[in-house]
Amino acid sequence: xxxxxxxxxxxxxxxxxxxxxxxxxxxxxxxxxxxxxxxxxxxxxxxxxxxxxxxxxxxxxxxxxxxxxxxxxxxxxxxxxxxxxxxxxxxxxxxxxxxxxxxxxxxxxxxxxxxxxxxxxxxxxxxxxxxxxxxxxxxxxxxxxxxxxxxxxxxxxxxxxxxxxxxxxxxxxxxxxxxxxxxxxxxxxxxxxxxxxxxxxxxxxxxxxxxxxxxxxxxxxxxxxxxxxxxxxxxxxxxxxxxxxxxxxxxxxxxxxxxxxxxxxxxxxxxxxxxxxxxxxxxxxxxxxxxxxxxxxxxxxxxxxxxxxxxxxxxxxxxxxxxxxxxxxxxxxxxxxxxxxxxxxxxxxxxxxxxxxxxxxxxxxxxxxxxxxxxxxxxxxxxxxxxxxxxxxxxxxxxxxxxxxxxxxxxxxxxxxxxxxxxxxxxxxxxxxxxxxxxxxxxxxxxxxxxxxxxxxxxxxxxxxxxxxxxxxxxxxxxxxxxxxxxxxxxxxxxxxxxxxxxxxxxxxxxxxxxxxxxxxxxxxxxxxxxxxxxxxxxxxxxxxxxxxxxxxxxxxxxxxxxxxxxxxxxxxxxxxxxxxxxxxxxxxxxxxxxxxxxxxxxxxxxxxxxxxxxxxxxxxxxxxxxxxxxxxxxxxxxxxxxxxxxxxxxxxxxxxxxxxxxxxxxxxxxxxxxxxxxxxxxxxxxxxxxxxxxxxxxxxxxxxxxxxx
Amino acid sequence: xxxxxxxxxxxxxxxxxxxxxxxxxxxxxxxxxxxxxxxxxxxxxxxxxxxxxxxxxxxxxxxxxxxxxxxxxxxxxxxxxxxxxxxxxxxxxxxxxxxxxxxxxxxxxxxxxxxxxxxxxxxxxxxxxxxxxxxxxxxxxxxxxxxxxxxxxxxxxxxxxxxx
Lengths: 710, 164
Prior knowledge:
Shape of chain B: globular
Structural class of chain B: alpha+beta
Strand order of the largest sheet of chain A: 9-10-7-17-14-15-16
Number of strands of chain B: 5
Number of helices of chain B: 5
Oligomer: heterodimer
Largest sheet of chain B: 5 strands, mixed
Radius of gyration of chain A: 27 Å
Number of strands of chain A: 24
Order of helices and strands of chain B: EEHEEEHHHH
Strand content of chain B: 15-25%
Structural class of chain A: alpha+beta
Distance between the termini of chain B: 66 Å
């Protein structure tokens, strides 16, 4: 029998690439996926310990590095538990079987008489050996075959249980070492003088004053890319400030009007794709058509730690330490950018601060490698400033969404049309013929500036992610307009297009239900046949006491839900809001179904964290800019949700042991924004269709509602 | 060859240990701690005292080490996040943070632990609102806020129960 290998394992079948048994009783497990703060290493360790029958403490999750770790692409898309988890599960199951076969041969006892307990293998008549004695020999040179079925979920010791994160004690005690803390012997500190605006080019640079400053080793200039190398970070910083005063830039006004992003997106050059079209043929006549348009601004990653990297050239060989989401992808782009064979580059993953998508990690690695060419063989560390982090990490793209529904005599939807406008949602490294690294287009001999694309819809898509409603409508047509002008660098941010699309769709159907005077939960349940979708909605309705009146003026409750990508995690959210002089989300009740939750507390943490971040996006966040410069380069100009503003959260994880695991990290983004918008609608009787939902927008919407006869 | 800098000699007490260091006048306390003393748990986040990742205690009071000149710490008692634990063992607050699994990436947590320790020293029985208000000076991007608040309240409760 030969079942199908999980895709990651099929691409990297050699078992010794995934695990190694050490003589000291430790199993080293290698995954190509990396820890971003989401807890993936704990989930993978649980899976490995479960399949191998060893204590969790014996599993050592090894940092990913090119050349030694399996190539699993990018840690993104809520795919790690499903991709790497399945691969580790099958690899460990097969390794265990090979160890038993080897033990049987060496001990001369039948395989079925052998049992494993914490790595010790025991058989009839007191025969014994261990993984630590024979494991590496047993799996040496062997490829995965998928001939060994992994364990079922019954009687599991680790999988499906809320296990404490294996990395958290070090983080809480302050012992954890992040990329920012890496200090190599002889290391220099680099800084980059980023241009004052996205399209700026360097006209003139006076380098001498900076070069003469204490500790400065070199000033590097290549076209509009300017950086310094110094003995200490502070000296590098001071030298860059000197250079800032000594540089003259040409700054064309290339940015759109931030107050009219919808108009810009509709007018820009574009490429149109049909996402979905269906016609059940039985659609009754439409009586009237309703329309609404929604927008979402550019949003920043706004990680608390700035992007950072260390690079070291040894002759023509390059070693890079990075918090990238894709070690092999970064290596591929560095290989193109420096015209160096990939085999001569090693990228090692070192953890960074929270990562929520394609941020500046890869860009700063390239900065460090560029500067390290002038470092005479010394390693170079580059850490971005707060302003660089908020201004130059790629942004989550702005979007505009136009929805249209034809309603019959009873207000039922007979036809749905959606048009979704946005830049593409990814320009990750390692996927194109040109590098997507920030500085690559700023060199004297520049690479072309890439324009973001949308990943295939079959895998979830980008701008069009979750653009097709899950409801049973007789006719439907959804198209996606990818905007080809990209004045601001835009790429993947947590949930990609799903955040805005679910916000728009769930706002629109809420109003359609209201027009029928139908309860929004009842309307949704009436249009959904999938029992798992119904279950998350019913769970949040129950937990939130849906339908019970909320005491007090200006309060409202709203619901939103989605199945991420159409085939991932189910998540429903009920939000409660209170509107005074400001918009407060007071409570979020959330239900999520991710199939088998390997670590239910890890899932709850991801769902809750995602919902709080989405609340911040929905209420406060927009990248600010004038027609030339980004102006939200500090926490004052790019505020995020604070402790006193964070809603109470109540998360239910619906455990489904017999369903495959899907990722949890992005499922809450869209439903949370939709639930908040619907709660605001309930509270004030007016609909906010432009994010973020600010007090000013609420005041304007309320006035407009009052001016318009119902 | 670039010129040398004049270094100033400083004596201070860090995590209960007397240390001497040489710092250029523009060195921040954060840089002194991280780069010269190898204490990396106070972190750089913004450099302007707006995110709280660099928080340490000076003579028991919370201060942003990213904006304070190192010379201002001369003769003072500094407690960094490393100094919260006692001989490597987690402090009651740190134990509570772990019990609540109150972090995701963990970058902001050491600074928050310093703030919460100072809060509990001044106010051993804070209300939830008082905890949130004390932590308002700290940014967390992963959304671990509610777990962190629960952990601070848990630490207060456990300290109270231990006394009875």
